[in-house]
Write a structure and sequence with these properties.
The chain is 14% helix and 50% strand. It is mainly beta and 594 residues long.
Length: 594
């Protein structure tokens, strides 16, 4: 492989021009009816992200469940609406207040008219919510439903003559608004025995009269803008204004296949008028002993926003080697005035005696333009701990940055400039990084949909430039669907990936077959591509090497309350000069809800 990468790099510009030519040719070659948004596109639009690899797997699992079983807004309390992660506190209170005065909301036009919503937001959440009502207009409905859901899955994979398998099971039950429980367990491919490797679950009780709840077991704690306490896997995408201001869900129950991100212990919150007190004690065990995480959050909620104060301390090595590796106190605000969202958070790190802060604004700049900007100040001494705020790199530390983004009906554009006071390399005193990205959704006719994305990263260390050009085209004819992607990356050398996917979908069955090829000789040029999978299995593999892959995914609703998912995939590397074994995977998942 010594000569070919060099030739490949020298022809990188010619290859990139060839990719653009292929994209343009494909635009005029495809003709059919434009495809509706896929489930992943709906999630990306809601979260304000441009790419699946910027999503939290837990959020994806939760939103996929909402797509399958939309959140019944007319049956939800303020607490449940907030915990969904779809609404700010102001929106949740505004909706419940509107419902109490005017009765159940019966159309998305009416939903858009609720104070704090608007047409754009109502359109984003529409796939994830239901306006089902069991009452007459002007009256609130009965909210005492019982809902059960069971999921079981298993998968096997093989590579180089060696095989392994995994499994997972999950059960959830909800009794109206006031009682719910769940249990999830899973075994990974690398587990040593047949017993579940990960177990998560919860029991949750809501108290209407006391305006509070108690959660025993696994729970999520997400406060402010994520600078102090936001458990989960939060990544750094700031591609669209919708992704700038986070919607804190506070304390929420968790029973997920990705339960490793949740906390475990006891949590509770209680509201008195406009003040909510939330507290929890999380417990985990490691080789050095027990880790305890006590935390408290006080929040005041006004008509147009909220102010919060959060404190937590992580005490490790209990009882023998007791020490405090992380302790933070944070204050946050979030307000909405005439469609303009203003938010900020300031956090003091007691261990390193340093302060980090962020502030931003999201505002309409016209009838068809939405803008956002953000300032971030994360000193190099600040320990990220359980932070998951917006950032340019992998940690909320060592970064002074400014971002702005805009969104129109045809696409988004964004820029991020970051200064790193502690250099990323030994050769520099300080380091800088610039990111630019733009994405267009074009409709040449009613029969064609195409999305183009251009991203550029410039930095003062390592590989100074990384250019990413991607084109996605989709079309459908009745129940048949076809999508195509061409993706080129130029960083250390140049890498290319492309695939063609054909599918069939109806109310009872859906099938997708994908075939693709990639040529990526350097790890710095790796290309990510989202793969269709069963709900709860979030797959965004990095393609590297020279090879090809095929994948088949199918879902069959065999009954009103039952659905089966099947996925088979195979990746081979026949074009490598140094032999690399292929790999195959087969998954089966069933879901029952009643």
């Amino acid at each position: 492989m010594s000569s070919m990468p060099h030739n490949f790099a020298s022809n990188g510009g010619k290859d990139m021009r060839r990719l653009v030519s292929i994209c343009i040719f494909a635009i005029y070659s495809l003709s059919s009816v434009a495809q509706d948004m896929t489930d992943m596109e709906k999630i990306l639009k809601l979260k304000g992200e441009d790419s699946p690899e910027n999503l939290d797997p837990y959020d994806v699992e939760k939103l996929e469940e909402m797509l399958e079983h939309p959140l019944k807004l007319n049956f939800m309390s303020v607490s449940r609406l907030k915990e969904s992660g779809l609404f700010t506190h102001y929106q949740a209170v505004s909706f419940v207040d509107y419902r109490s005065r005017h009765g159940d909301v019966l159309s998305f036009v009416e939903l858009a008219a609720v104070d704090g919503f608007g047409q754009d937001f109502a359109g984003r959440i529409a796939p994830f919510v239901s306006l089902e009502s069991h009452s007459l207009p002007g009256q609130a409905g009965n909210r005492g439903e019982v809902f059960h859901k069971m999921t079981a899955r298993t998968a096997a994979k093989a590579s180089a003559g060696e095989g392994s398998w995994n499994y997972g099971m999950k059960y959830n039950v909800e009794v109206g608004e006031y009682l719910s429980g769940g249990l999830a367990m899973s075994r990974s491919y690398d587990a040593d025995d047949l017993l579940p490797e990960s177990v998560s679950g919860h029991v949750r009780m809501d108290f209407k009269m006391a305006r509070g709840k108690v959660i025993l077991g696994d729970f999520n704690a997400r406060f402010g803008q994520g600078l102090a306490l936001w458990n989960g896997l939060g990544l750094s995408g700031l591609a669209a204004p919708s992704g700038y201001m986070k919607r804190a869900s506070g304390l929420s129950a968790s029973s997920s296949f990705t339960g490793n991100y949740a906390m475990r212990g006891v949590a509770a919150d209680y509201s008195v008028r406009r003040v909510r007190t939330a507290a929890f004690m999380a417990v985990s065990r490691s080789e050095e002993g027990f880790t305890l995480i006590p935390a408290v959050n006080l929040a005041w909620f006004g008509r147009n926003g909220q102010v919060g104060l959060t404190h937590y301390a992580e005490t490790a090595g209990v009882p023998e080697a007791f020490h405090i590796p992380d302790m933070k106190t944070s204050a946050d605000i979030g307000f909405c005035f005439s469609g303009v969202d203003v938010f900020a958070e300031c956090t003091y790190d007691w261990v390193s005696a340093s302060t980090a802060a962020l502030a931003g604004v999201v505002f309409p700049a016209g009838d068809k333009l939405k803008m956002a900007s953000m300032l971030r100040y994360y000193p190099s001494g600040f320990t990220p701990g359980r932070s998951s705020a917006a950032r340019s790199t992998t940690r909320c530390s060592n970064e002074y940055a400014f971002s702005f983004s805009g969104e129109t009906s045809s696409g988004t554009f964004s820029a991020d400039a970051a200064y790193f006071p502690e250099p990323k390399s030994d050769d520099n005193l300080h380091d800088l990084q610039l990111k630019f990205q733009t994405e267009w959704s074009l409709a040449f006719s009613e029969k064609l949909k195409i999305k183009l994305r251009f991203a550029e990263r410039i930095r003062s260390w390592g590989q100074p430039f990384r250019t990413d050009l991607r084109a996605d085209m989709s079309c459908s004819s009745g129940r048949f669907i076809m999508t195509m992607r061409l993706n080129g990356v130029s960083c250390k050398e140049a890498g290319f990936l492309g695939y063609l996917e054909c599918g069939y979908r109806s109310s009872q069955i859906s099938m997708y077959a994908r075939a693709g090829a990639f040529r990526v000789d350097e790890w710095d040029d790796r290309i990510y591509a989202y793969e269709r999978d069963a709900p709860g299995s979030f797959s965004v593999p990095a393609y590297y090497g020279r090879g090809a892959w095929t994948a088949f995914t199918a879902a069959w609703r065999f009954a009103t309350s039952g659905k089966i998912y099947v996925r088979a995939a195979f990746t081979a590397y026949p074009f490598m000069e140094q032999k690399k074994p292929g790999k195959a995977e087969l998954k089966l998942q069933s879901v029952f809800d009643f």
